[in-house]
Each structure stands twice: as C-alpha cells, then as structure tokens.
Amino acid sequence: MAEQRRDERDGRGAREGAQGVREDVGSVAESRGSGVSEEEARAWAALVATARRTVSDGLVVGTSGNVSVRVGDTVLVTPSGVPYDRLAPDDITGVALDGRQVLGTLVPTSELPMHLVVHRTTDARAVVHTHAVHATAVSTLVPVLPAIHYMTGALGGPVRVAPYAPYGSEQLAENVRLALADRTGCLLQNHGTLTYGATLDQAYDRTAQLEWMCRLWLTASSVPGLTPNLLSAEQLAEAAQRLRGYGQRD
Fold first, then answer.
1. 89 near 24, Cβ under 8 Å?
2. What's the pLDDT score for residue 245?
C-alpha cells in the first residue's frame, strides 16, 4: 500500500513537472515573441530545471556553478549572479559561438569563455559546471583522479585536473580545453568540475558520477595503512566498451 501511494505521488510529480515545463515553454515564446523558437524555449526550460537540480543535489551553493545547452548555433546559458530558483521563462539568455549576446538582456555567466570553448571544440550539446565538494577537494590533491571505479571509462579515461586560473578567464578556458582532450569531463584545480554531453541529462549524470568517484577515492584513501586498488588501462578500456552498450535501445 505504501509503495502504491509512493508510486502515485511520483507519477503526480512527474505530471506536474511536465506541466511546468510546458507552461515555461509557452511563457518564453509569449514573452519573447518570434525572437525565440519553440526549440529554444524548451531548451531554456530544461536548462533551468538542470541548474536547479545542481542546487537541490548539493553540487553548488547559491549562484555558484553554471549550465549551458546548444540549440543550433546559439548557446543558452545561465545568467550571472541570479539564483536559479528566481529564473523565469523570460530570463532566457543566449549567445552566439563567438560570445555575442543574441537572446535576452541579462548578463551571461562569468564562465562564458569556458562554456564556449567546450561548445566550439567538442561535440558537446550541453555543459554542466559545479563546485561539488568532494571533486573540488580532489582537485587540490592530485593532477589526475585515480581510476578508482569502472565509471571512469564513461568519461573517456582517468579524469585530469585543469591547472588553476582565475574564474572567467581565457586562461581557465584554455586549461579546460586541454584537460578535456579525449575526455567528457575534468576537474578544475581549487575550483570544481566540468562535464559535457549530448544532452543536459547526460552532462548532469556525468557530473554526478564524477563527484561520486571523487568521494569514493577520498573515502578509500583515508584508511590508514592501506592503498586503494586502482583499475588498469585494459580494465578501463573493457569497461568503456561495455558502457557504450549500456541501457535501453531506441
């Protein structure tokens, strides 16, 4: 009976969430008129939902971190310094790949250079940047997150740490670009995480997995007198191959 009630609540929540997205899509289109396509409106609603999820899941605090999603040649991004729970449909913020603002009036995130370099140099359609606690802690300790778990393969291999540079700087963007070579995620030294994916859900999931692996490595490394077992390159390659076939088929 308890499971039935929980299922009913979950179903009701999903329906309400879907209804909220539909309302946000309509509000964006209405508030911006013909300047915003339906695809951009849907992408903005999904971006806001993802940004709020980073807060609710404890990956960011306040207005730290940022999210972007690409629609054609336009990159929608979270605006600078606006709490995610206050973002409204008409706050849509978009830039061209060269950084020119093409949608909205709010100032884009200060980490715009970092997001744009990922969108320009990879096949990313979505990017998630957080200040996750365990991942940030690891970024201060090692140049590469040790291969503590097979999910390392889902990110392309051992996750590198991009050397420290001031936030929002072109140097930080370049450091991230190099750290992402053949990878879909990296750590930012004394700063946080960045992952990308084909969708917002995939980019977010990679962020969550990266934070979990960092927590796992920190926990295992804290046992006195013992050293965590790490996976070999061959084991990671096998895991990566298996992960490519994971999940349901379309």
1. yes
2. 64
Max CA separation in the chain (angstroms):
64
- Residue at 138: amino acid letter: V
DSSP-derived letter for residue 64 is -
What's the whole-model pTM score?
0.86
pLDDT tens digit sequence for 138-148 = 999 999 999 99
Separation of alpha carbons 40 and 186, rounded Å: 27
- Kindly compute the dihedral angle of the four CA atoms of residues 17, 22, 26, 28, in this order, to the nearest 10 degrees: 50
User: If DSSP codes are grouped into helix, strand and coil, which group holds residue 26?
Assistant: helix
The whole-angstrom separation of Cα 43 and Cα 56 is: 20
- The two structure tokens encoding residue 210: 């990266």
Q: Which two tokens stand for residue 90?
A: 């008409």
Sign of CA dihedral 17, 18, 21, 26: negative
Residue 212 host element (H or E):
helix 200-221
Q: Does the annotation count 39 as an active-site position? A: no
Catalytic residue among 111, 174, 234, 238: 111
Residue that the structure tokens 């310094």 belong to: 81
Helix (H, G, I), strand (E, B) or coil at 84: helix
The CA distance from 28 to 26, in Å, is 6
What gap in Å lies between CA 199 and CA 31, rounded to an integer? Answer: 25
The residues with which 79 forms a beta bridge, in sequence order, are 108
CA proximity to 129, closest of 192, 209, 205 = 192
Question: Which value, in Å, is the radius of gyration of the alpha carbons in the chain?
Answer: 19
